[in-house]
Structures are given as structure tokens and as C-alpha cells.
Amino acid sequence: MTRKYQGVKTQDFIPIKEIRDGIVVLRDGSLRAILLTSSVNMALKSQEEQEALISQFQSFLNSLEFPIQIAVQSRRFDVRPYLLTLERRLQQQKEELLRVQTREYIEFIKWFTSSVNIMDKKFFVVIPYKGTLLTVKKSGGFFSNLFGGKSKREKFHEEVQRFEEQRSQLEQRIAIVQGGLQQMGIRSEPLNTEQAIEVFYTMFNPGEGHRNVPDITKVQ
After folding, report:
1. Over the stretch 125-176, which tens digit does the pLDDT of each residue have?
2. 53: nearest Cα among 180, 179, 190
């Protein structure tokens, strides 16, 4: 007979309670919004442009009345889907010259990616907000339930209302951060629930690649 594991679970080390409507709810009741942002290649800019951008970034940080966190996820780029697409085109190609060129291109991609580590980087800005706790305290016992105790439905509606109020405050912070980033030519987009889950999944599973996190270059 196998014994049931009684030790500490992996989930106990993760401070996330849930992800609701793209908002990360931590166990202490505070909220986190995650913005996916574009990047700026400083090496392609002149000395004057670099200094101006650094000055803008400094002014942006000084203008904030709340802390933010800038995070980068770096993963080795998975070229297998691209190679599969090329293989399909090779099979559909009827002209011999194009077939030869496509085959040589496939071999080049395989050789290049095996020789050089091509990294896929995602840049995020994490925006916090901490208000009152989202969890409702347990009832005081029999007499509390008997005289004026709140039903589960009332508690649920209170929690939903509290969450909406806090999300409204967090969305104001999101707008401020997005506006500041836009002034520096940096585009940003809040992650939805599925995309936020994918970010944390790849964080705790380094061997997996990005699947549902969008490409910020396609953000208008």
C-alpha cells in the first residue's frame, strides 16, 4: 500500500492565488498586471539619441508614484515549426530549381541554428496594486450565522465588487505606464488570462517554449 505524500507541495511556494481577467491575484490579496512591451535597440541609435532616451526613461520612472518591475524572459528560439512549414512547401513545389533552393535553405537553417543559440526574448512590465484583502473572513460561529450572518451569495458578490474596485485602480496605473512607455516609442499590451498563465508556465518549465504569448511587433 502506497503512502500519500504529506510534505510541502510545489504550489505552496508559488504566491499566486488565481489569475482573473488577466489580473494576477496573490495570496496576500494584492493584484499584479503584466504588460508585454516592445524593446529598443540602443546600439542602433546615435549618442544623442541614446542620451535622450535614457533621460526620458529616468523622467518616466521619477513620475511614477508606485513601484513597477521590469522582467525579461529569454528562451532558445524554436525553429521546428518554421522548418515544418518549409518542408511542406518543398513537397508542394513542382519546379526543380526552386526545390533545390528550398532544400539548401532548409539545410542552412538547420546548420545555423545548431551552431548559434538564437534567443527569443520577451519584455514585461509588472504593475502592482494592493488594497483590501479579496478573501472574506470566515463567519464567527453559530450565533453569527443565526443573527445577521451573510450568505455565501452575499459574500461572493462582495468579493466580486471588491475585485472590480481594485481592478479599476490598477487599470489607472496601467494607463499611466502605457502612456509613459508610448512617449519613448515603446508599445505595450496587457496580457489576458491565458497569456499570463503561459508566462508563469514557461517560467517554472524552462524546457517549454512560448506558445500563447503574442508578438508585440504586431501590436498596432
Report:
1. 999 998 765 554 444 444 444 445 567 777 777 778 888 888 899 999 999 9
2. 180
pTM: 0.69
Query: Which SS3 state, helix, strand or coil, does residue 118 take?
Result: coil
Which residue's entry shows cell 450568505? 151
Q: 3-state class of 47 per DSSP?
A: helix
Indicate if the alpha-carbon torsion angle 191, 176, 170, 54 is positive or negative: positive
Identity (one letter) of the amino acid at 173? R
Cα–Cα distance, 120 to 191 (Å, whole number)? 18
Q: Which residues of the chain have pLDDT under 50?
A: 136-147, 210, 216-220
The residue ranges of every structural domain in the chain are 10-77+120-218, 78-117
